[in-house]
Amino acid sequence: MRTFHSQLEYVKQELLTMGSQVEKQIHRMRQAFAEMNYATMDQIIEHDHLINQLEIGMHDKVTLLISKQQPVATDLRKLIVALKVSSDLERVADLVVDIAKQSQRMKEQGLVSFKEKLETMFSIAEAMMHDALKAYEASDMLLAQKVAMQDDRVDDLYGKIIRELFQLDNSDVEIDQVTQLAFVGRYIERIADYATNLSEWVVYEVNGKHFDLN
């Protein structure tokens, strides 16, 4: 029979395992987007239900621990953060699936320069998610704050891409390609937002205070 604190550590390790799975989805999708690899995109879409199951399992474990142990103060915060982080990770996985579905509608050689700009955005968002999970693992508030600082870069790139996309001459482009690129950019921008959310949960877990790091 595990002690309560060993159960808390188990929850954290399970959550980090879920985070690792989401990271793999992000990485595979970034590569698939760069290569327009539709087969990998299909696999990413099919894999999503596994992450959904991990989130449901985490919710059940944490809810049971709270009801049985009735933790307070720091221990309760850790469990609340686990619920929030697992929910955010599941939503990130959904966004990766959304990117896959939109990308499958794109032409392989359509608007290449914009696609390359989105790849840059994607790389930053991927690094943010990786560092946010590292910050959670180590309870590292400084790293969490550094992650949040990167969000402005993603927002700026996204804003610039959108402005340039909608300034294109309609006679030279297909409007559905512009729309799909805009959606992909929005989903990447949301992944970066969730990485910032994770960083904010790290700060809350450590000191019990809510800070808007964005």
TrEMBL record:
Pfam families from the UniProt entry: PhoU
Residue spans crossing the bilayer: none
Function text: Plays a role in the regulation of phosphate uptake.
Subcellular compartments: Cytoplasm
Domain (PhoU): residue spans on this chain: 16-101, 119-202
Protein name per UniProt: Phosphate-specific transport system accessory protein PhoU
Organism: Halalkalibacter oceani
Coiled-coil features, chain-numbered ranges: none
Gene Ontology biological process: intracellular phosphate ion homeostasis; negative regulation of phosphate metabolic process; phosphate ion transport
Gene Ontology CC entries for this record: cytoplasm
Entry annotated with the keyword Cytoplasm: yes
Primary site of residence: cytoplasm
Keywords, in A-Z order: Cytoplasm, Phosphate transport, Transport
SUPFAM superfamilies attached to this UniProt entry: PhoU-like (SSF109755)
Family note: Belongs to the PhoU family.
